Amino acid sequence: MNAEIVIFGGNAHPELADEICRQLSVRRSPVRTTRFANDCLQVQLQANCRERDVYLIQPLVPPAQENLVELLLMADAARGASAARVTAVMSHYAYARSDKKDAPRISIGGRLVADLLVTAGVNRVLTLTLHSPEVHGFFSVPVDHLHALRELAAHFRQRDLSRAVVLSPDLGYAKAASAFARRIGVPVAAGAKERFSDQKVSISAIIGEVADRDVIVLDDEIARGTTMLELLSVLRHHEPRSISIACTHGLFADGALEKLTAAEDVNEVVCTNSVPVPVSHPKLTVLSVAPALAEAIRRTHDGQSVSVLFEQ
């Protein structure tokens, strides 16, 4: 790896930052974060950034606002230190959920945060499995939008898939579910979902054949698990042979993992380490996305195409 690269990691997910650095054989440069008496943060990058290719690894995970401000301050510090290029590596962009104006007088947070990052000095964004893929259009700088379908597919290929089917919780994620189903060579189904609030959804039907099949439910993230629990209650009426749950971002807030794994018919919950997984469980499998993110960083730094990672 070229010596001109510098990698900093904020406090959001230092374990992922360290794993990415090990993949690249680059030492993670230290960041000093202090808090004033008035609760304001100050960030100091403790490595030379002048004319360097700087990467800031910081997913927007709880406390999301705190981690966002820390990322903004790191970007501003790198720009002020004459970095040649500043790339924000956000394995989880939480504000991608705020992608449209679906009620009067609300903000489109996904666009606002994108503007803040660019204003702070970010020249490029590397992110993973946006809740709404169109959100990368909110940025006025280049965005490399990776996915974790390769890692998830490699995991499920280790089992017998002769009776398997991939199930998307809603039609909005059906395209990604179809791509995943093609990777492992199985059919796809989807739920007909209507969301009323962050904690209330309704799934009126499942489109596709799931009876007496090994169902792999695939979603981009699981937070409270509201959608997943509703889908499982509907799915059971179709009498599947087995149920597995897979997602990229396993946030598992408000005891979601415990609720999902409590069901005897749920064999396994699979997620990645794109966010810190707050709990562990015998039914939980965590896959690493550090190799994919490290390869994207390496290709970006060396001026190579990153599009091959979208296809794998």
Structural summary, described in words:
This protein is 29% helix and 29% strand. The protein has 312 residues and is of the alpha/beta class. It has a 7-stranded mixed beta sheet with strand order 11-10-9-12-13-14-15. Strand 5 (53-57), helix 2 and strand 6 (85-90) form a beta-alpha-beta unit.
List the helices and strands and how they pair.
Layout: E1 5-9, H1 14-24, E2 28-29, E3 31-35, E4 41-45, E5 53-57, H2 64-80, E6 85-90, H3 109-120, E7 124-128, E8 143-146, H4 149-156, E9 164-168, H5 174-184, E10 188-197, E11 200-207, E12 214-222, H6 226-235, E13 242-250, H7 256-261, E14 266-272, E15 284-287, H8 290-301, H9 307-311
Parallel strand pairs: 1-2, 1-5, 5-6, 6-7, 7-8, 9-10, 9-12, 12-13, 13-14, 14-15
Antiparallel strand pairs: 3-4, 10-11
Describe the structure in brief.
The chain is an alpha/beta fold and 312 residues long. The protein is built from nine helices and 15 strands.
Features of the shown structure:
312 residues, alpha/beta, 7-stranded mixed sheet, 6-stranded parallel sheet, 9 helices, 29% strand
Major β-sheet profile? 7 strands, mixed
Proportion of residues in extended strands: 25-35%
Helix count, DSSP H or I runs of 4 or more residues: 9
Could you give the order of strands across the largest sheet?
Answer: 11-10-9-12-13-14-15
Q: Average pLDDT value?
A: 93
Distance between the termini: 23 Å
